[in-house]
Design goal:
2 copies of one chain form a homodimer. Chain A is an alpha/beta fold. Chain A has helices at 23-33, 42-48, 50-60, 78-98, 115-135, 159-166, 180-183, 189-195, 229-238, 252-256, 259-273, and strands at 11-14, 37-41, 63-71, 102-106, 139-142, 174-179, 200-205, 207-208, 219-220, 245-247. In chain A, strand 1 (11-14), helix 1 (23-33) and strand 2 form a beta-alpha-beta unit.
């Protein structure tokens, strides 16, 4: 275990942790709580528009750790896959406009039972997206999701897969995002984190606990579960990642409490468990 | 996709699919539905005792495809781990007494955050169990569980892990059990099935669908989900497995319907989707 606490200057609020806050409330909350980074979701940006979002973030002095999210590449027809790609082009433009160089990719589920073909569509989508992203100074961060989401969110389910896909490009183009919730169970985790050296574009924290009655909202506050978060942070740092650490928690109970309380608890748990 | 339907002579009812039936009802149900194999759970055997169970199974003419289950090796103290091992010795004796040569191992969750140590305890437990099992003519089938169960059921979560653990022994001692629900998401699935050649001790079928509101009872009837079951069967057969195929479904709705209906549907879906 790393003995050292993480630096508060790396702490980032992934906006979905305070799902009921809009962009302005989330930015103000972070400023008040002295959390220096924020990660925005595109559906929240859409509510108020890109220009207003940019005005709020710039005015707040916050740094944007990433934009959530691009991806969702697989679709039955070439036309639908092009439509998904077009949406990814917009996501890249938004990331660039808002001043973050990381677009997180949640690669998408399979529209049919042939998961291998869907995985090829993900690779094809990324291949088509890379030149556009590079020309905008935006890196693509492939986030493997927990295999629990293989049917409804992402056919990319292991860091091994994400690394293999990313290694076709240079680290300024495509990397991986390590989210402890998604990868903690993996027997090959520490090898794969080491393999990702120089290519880790984000580190997300939360915790896993049971029972799970809603797979989407299954995440817990750090310290309320079974994940060796600090050990994983240590591995990620050994692999050269010292960037922002996003707290990303979908949890109804946390959403229902005042956002300021969530940020206070999250700071405390970050220092204690990350 | 394999074009050929599976053989009805390989169909096995894993008893948990008809959870509300006792051993006698399950055996009678199988005989009536002309399902030649059954797999029993130890808690069901306990209800009526081993001798009575043996009498029922022998009298029914059914073949026992496996006993569910041994495992659950990790525990905080050496004393508790010995207790778990003792229970595994009993499971081996029961398997031998009932005339099946396969004891399915669900390896158990970790009692603390250090999942790597728990994995070592699993290996130690199996090592201690092998000579006893061998002397009883019982093979140990390591069943990797879906990573969704890493915190509460099994620290063994991939076929890669199970293969690596099994390969320390000869195939008459330790093998693997392939359950489509647990492994379908794995990008390395077909390589790992091929790697398990000669060592597959069981093949379990059900289906995966979303949303999941109860991880334990998340399984569906074959055909009601996203898994390419027939393709996986074909791979398992290429790896030399032509033994019984257990239908193992924990699903409240299926449990609530009459067992005879479940068996009728399961036969139909088996021929169509497995």
């Amino acid at each position: 275990m790393a003995v050292e606490k993480p630096l508060l200057e790396n702490l980032s609020l992934n906006q979905i942790t305070t799902e009921y806050w809009n962009v302005k409330e989330a930015a103000e909350g972070c400023v008040k709580a002295k959390i220096p980074w924020i990660s925005l979701w595109r559906h929240k940006i859409e509510e108020i528009g890109l220009a207003e979002t940019k005005r709020i973030i710039t005015g707040s002095g916050l740094k944007l750790s990433s934009l959530c999210r691009g991806g969702m590449f697989p679709a039955e027809t070439a036309e639908l896959r092009q439509k998904a790609l077009d949406d990814n082009f917009r996501a890249v433009e938004e990331a660039a406009e808002l001043g973050t160089d990381v677009l997180v990719l949640v690669c998408g589920p399979s529209p049919h039972k042939d998961i291998q073909t869907s995985r090829k569509w993900v690779e094809e989508g990324i291949e088509k997206l890379v030149p556009f992203a590079e020309s905008h100074g935006v890196k693509l961060g492939i986030e493997p999701l927990h295999p629990m989401y293989a049917a409804d969110r992402s056919v990319v389910v292991t860091l091994d897969q994400a690394n293999t896909m990313a290694e076709k490009y240079n680290p300024n183009q495509v990397g991986v995002v390590v989210d402890v919730f998604h990868v903690w169970w993996d027997p090959d985790l520490y090898n794969q984190i080491a393999r990702a050296e120089g290519r880790i574009l984000g580190f997300h924290v939360s915790d896993w606990n049971v029972p799970i009655t809603d797979t989407f909202k299954a995440r817990h506050m750090m310290g309320d579960g079974v994940i060796e978060i600090r050990r994983i942070r240590e591995a990620v740092e050994k692999a050269g990642y010292f960037g922002p650490i996003e707290v990303e928690i979908m949890n109804q109970k946390i959403w229902d409490q005042p956002g300021d309380d969530t940020l206070a608890i999250m700071k405390e748990r970050y220092l204690e468990h990350v």
